[in-house]
Specification:
This protein is 0% helix and 58% strand. The protein is an all-beta fold. The strands form 2 sheets. Strands 1, 2, 3, 4 and 7 form a 5-stranded antiparallel beta sheet that branches. A 4-stranded antiparallel beta sheet has the order 6-5-8-9, with no helix packed on it.
Length: 115
């Protein structure tokens, strides 16, 4: 779980997800915060479930859902419902306000999560 201590609560970006897109269900919480284990900023997925989706998804931290203005955080290969994806060290995350999950094969956006 990201360590929220010492952070201004108004600056913590998070979203609760409960969406159905393209026949799949996405639910859980997504938080952009500081990792308690000292890895810097991370995108933390808590109790995040993806049901009825067959493809492979990649997560992007984006500005207004725009993939061309995003950071590729990698493929979602996690077996657990709670996991984290590290943000490259030194990244200014202030302009990023969405998480985009994109299908690896078709390169289409599957779901956009507003933080």
């Amino acid at each position: 779980m990201p360590d929220m201590s010492g952070q201004d609560p108004s600056e913590i970006k998070m979203a609760t997800v409960d969406e159905e897109e393209k026949g799949a269900t996405f639910s859980g919480t997504v938080i952009l915060g500081i990792d308690v284990e000292g890895a810097g900023e991370v995108l933390f997925f808590r109790d995040f479930l993806i049901e009825d989706y067959k493809g492979e998804l990649t997560a992007y931290l984006a500005t207004d859902g725009n993939i061309t203005k995003s950071i590729d955080l990698g493929e979602l290969k996690h077996k657990s419902s709670s996991f984290k994806l590290p943000i490259p060290l030194g990244t200014d995350t202030s302009p990023y306000n969405t998480v985009v999950l994109r299908d690896e094969k078709s390169k289409k956006k599957v779901v956009t999560i507003k933080l």
